[in-house]
Amino acid sequence: MSLVMGKAFVAGAVAIVVLAASLLGILTRPVGFLAAFWPANAILLGLMVRYPRFSTVSGWTGAAVGYLAADLLTGGDLGLTAWLTAANLVGAMTGVLLFGRMREDDRRLKRPQSVLFLFAVCVAAAAVAAVAGGGAARIVFGRNFLEGLEFWFVTELVNNLVVLPPILTFPGWKAVARELSWTRESRTTLLHKAAPLVALILSALAGVLVGGPGALAFPVPALLWCAVSYSVFATAVLTMGMCAWLLVAVSAGAVQLAVADDLFSASTSVRLGVALLALGPLTVASINSARTELLARLAYTASYDSLTGVLTRQAFLALGNQLVASSQSSPVAVMMLDVDHFKKVNDQFGHASGDKVLVEFSRTVGDCLRPADLLGRAGGEEFAVVMPGTGLASAERIAERIRKAVEGTIIAGSGDHAHAVTVSIGVSSAENGASVTLDRLLSLADVHLYRAKAQGRNRIAA
């Protein structure tokens, strides 16, 4: 029963999505013409690619029902509707098969060349759909097969290039909410973030007011500005909105292009122009995203120890100095930690075992700290911690918690060896906003650390 219900849900969900998208497209259909904007095929393709569980016999059956219902509800002929539905389905199926051969990063437009792969898939899907449905041109608007093939291909291509990217790059609702949380920003930052969007809206208005063939290019600078300012998903959404507006506005006459008298040829040219217009901002956004990700990886590599994942010495000192400087009106504490007898582990069991000890040790210490505390690797088996807003008594309690946690940890080494690890900790603090530097606190903690080791290790000195 659950299997049947699952298939029914898939079929019903896909049918509703396709029906709604098809009705939206039908609303943009001029008399005697195909729709100015037909998002249904691209939405179906994106749905099947992003959520493969829908790409089943039930899902495709639901899609067929959605297409048929939309056209029949608006007075379409059954035979023609079945023909158009078959063409829509084979185009979407072609896209699903080709996207399945692409890397996940390329499907999500995360690499500079990803937009080229997207374009290739959209061309192939549009070509297959055009071959299947081009013959309907003679019935719909009295044109021959080649003209119908051309018009269907261009229309399918522009819809795929405009609608697919937002679906493929959708990062999840939480990420979208974070990107839209502009209310927390300062007025200057808010104006900086909103400027590309405002420019895009103004360019759309300029197209209406000025008109002419150049109106199609008016949004290009603003879209490129959006591409270098926003995420790939946001750029894809804005590009989709602008391209959909151009397609509908030109078809409805809101944007006067002063094109040739042959509306059929003019529409083909306009749609191809809009399709190519969409490639620019998407390519720039993908390149910018890859660059940003690379810089983030480089920054992470420079700031975090590759073995333990804690801050490197340089990053720890930089951030630690900031924390201490900002704690002048409140107490701040520093700990120096040293893994006891670490050299013996390295000498007896090898560096691989030593590395495992350091990794597990840093994880254990990190679990004992608070989110505001700073943990870094000072060098070798020595680690350091800065604890803002912490007096000496509280710091000693945290140090004792760390000591007990480390003492109770058995770390698996290479082969059958296991290591019981202990730690010696030196603690220093500055109370009541005393003027002190991080270097001074680290030096004091280091003195206490050596005292703890001299007293027998596995203990705290402050």
Please describe what this structure looks like.
- The protein is α+β, with helices and mostly antiparallel strands and 462 residues long.
- It has 2 domains: 2-302, no CATH class; 313-461, Reverse transcriptase/Diguanylate cyclase domain (Alpha-Beta Plaits, 2-Layer Sandwich), CATH 3.30.70.270.
- It is built from 18 helices and 7 strands.
- A hairpin with a 2-residue loop joins β2 (374-379) and β3.
- α2 packs parallel to α4 and α10 (187-210) packs parallel to α12 (232-252).
- The radius of gyration is 31 Å and the shape is elongated.
- The model has no long low-confidence stretch (mean pLDDT 86).
What topology emerges from the helices and strands here?
Layout: H1 2-27, H2 40-50, H3 57-73, H4 78-99, H5 104-107, H6 114-133, H7 137-141, H8 145-169, H9 173-180, H10 187-210, H11 220-229, H12 232-252, H13 263-303, H14 313-325, E1 332-339, H15 342-349, H16 351-368, E2 374-379, E3 382-388, H17 392-407, E4 410-412, E5 418-420, E6 423-430, H18 438-454, E7 460-461
Parallel strand pairs: 6-7
Antiparallel strand pairs: 1-3, 1-6, 2-3, 4-5
Helix pairs in contact: 1-2, 1-3, 2-4, 2-8, 3-4, 4-6, 6-8, 6-13, 8-12, 8-13, 10-11, 10-12, 11-13, 12-13, 15-16, 16-17
Give the tags.
462 residues, Alpha-Beta Plaits, 7 strands, five-stranded mixed sheet, alpha+beta, 2 domains
Give the overall silhouette: elongated
Output the strand order for the largest sheet: 2-3-1-6-7
Number of strands: 7
End-to-end Cα distance, whole Å, is 68 Å
Structural class designation: alpha+beta
**Sequence of secondary-structure elements:** HHHHHHHHHHHHHHEHHEEHEEEHE
Average pLDDT, rounded to a whole number, is 86
- Our count of domains comes out at 2
Helical content stands at 55-70%
Radius of gyration: 31 Å
- The percentage of residues in β strands lies in 5-15%
Uncertain regions spanning at least 5 consecutive residues: none
**Quick one: biggest sheet?**
5 strands, mixed
Number of helices: 18
